[in-house]
Amino acid sequence: MHDAAWLNANLATMRSGTPYGAIEDGVLAVRAGRISWIGPRSTWNETAKEENDARGAWITPGLVDCHTHLVYAGNRAHEFELRLKGASYEDIAKAGGGIAATVRSTRAASEDELFLVAKGRLAQWIDEGTAVIEIKSGYGLDHDTELKMLRVARRLGEAITVKTTFLGAHAIPEEYKGRADDYVEFVCEEVLPAAVKEKLVDAVDVFCERIAFDSRQTTRVFEKAKALGLPVKLHADQLSDLGGAALAARHGALSADHLEFSNEQGIEAMARAGSVAVLLPGAFYFLRETRLPPIEALRRHDVPIAIATDHNPGSSPLSSPLLAVNMACTLFRLTPEEALAGMTRNGARALGMQASHGTLETGKAADFALWDVTSPAELAYAIGANPCAGVVRAGRTPR
Ligand code: DI6
Ligand code: FE
User: Fold this and answer.
1) Whose CA is nearest to atom 2 of ligand 1?
2) 235 Cα to the center of ligand 2, angstroms
3) What are the two backbone dihedrals, phi and then psi, of residue 191, each rounded to the nearest 5 degrees?
4) Which candidate, 309, 352, 350, places its Cα nearest to that of 328?
5) For residue 318, which of 29, 215, 282, 338 is within the disulfide window of CB 3.0 to 4.6 Å?
6) Nearest residue to 364 (alpha-carbon basis) of 14, 17, 1
7) Which pTM was predicted?
């Protein structure tokens, strides 16, 4: 006996091998919060305590947004105006704006204020069928605020599955100007261990870029993460080629993200290491970048491609996972199936969660979404629409 079943459903399991891993006119059943049966209705000969008529809806795995900076205070709309008048992202950062501006407002906000604002933002992800969201720190750049941000991220885990990432190495704070190595030591020897002690960290990330941290400093943070038993991820080659893709691969990173300026050797190294390429079309769009990430090389070397919103106030104030999927097609020329796999199967892999999430398979978490569409491709096709007809979490429909 299953706890519940969804009949008269079209299932986009997102298992690789057949288009969308589709099973038309299928049944999905759950027991104890996990998928307990999935297949064509013609072979369904089971019973369930509760039967749901999906009325021909398409069911996909719950979306996985594997890269966000969702927790912060304030916004940077004025900088958007400055950039449209010709200032570059790097100019604004060098003039004391940019990440430093959001650090000032986030340090000044209380934990409850940060929580309420982030919870408000998160509602859009939940409404758009998202099951898992990754949330980074990185707007404190000190001890107290970095931990405050991570505590807020953990608290948001009541409404959705949250994976936290420590990003103390996001930028060099005012008080450490000209002393980057001292700041990296402070992050490695004080802030990260304190956050780990409070069980606030699932992974560690670094912004490896000219305006942030170089590969030697990145290596220092990665070695500390490894010593603490934590997986690593990297903001790599976003604005220039610092060999970030190869560096991430060398450390067995779960993912390397952005990659607009990555070279072929770096992509090959990621393929060998099994690292996922997380592409962020929102930042590409909002910063009006022109150099595309190396999509052909990623396909050629069979590197799994994930897609995420990179929600943040400075380079990607994007709150719609579905719009990120659409942008991955229109801006990066991914196919709708590649883009949807990017926000499901490969998004889960970029968080090390492929055993429980990302595809519809028996034994996996019963976290899925129902869509009022006639084909899965429509999820990448429509701009700004939200055809989500329902979300199921741990086998239950949230009341
Ligand atoms: N790269 C980005 O695009 C964001 N962080 C990063 O490492 C920008 C964050 C911000 O501008 O607030
Ligand atoms: Fe980011």
Assistant:
1) 315
2) 7
3) -70, -55
4) 309
5) 282
6) 14
7) 0.98
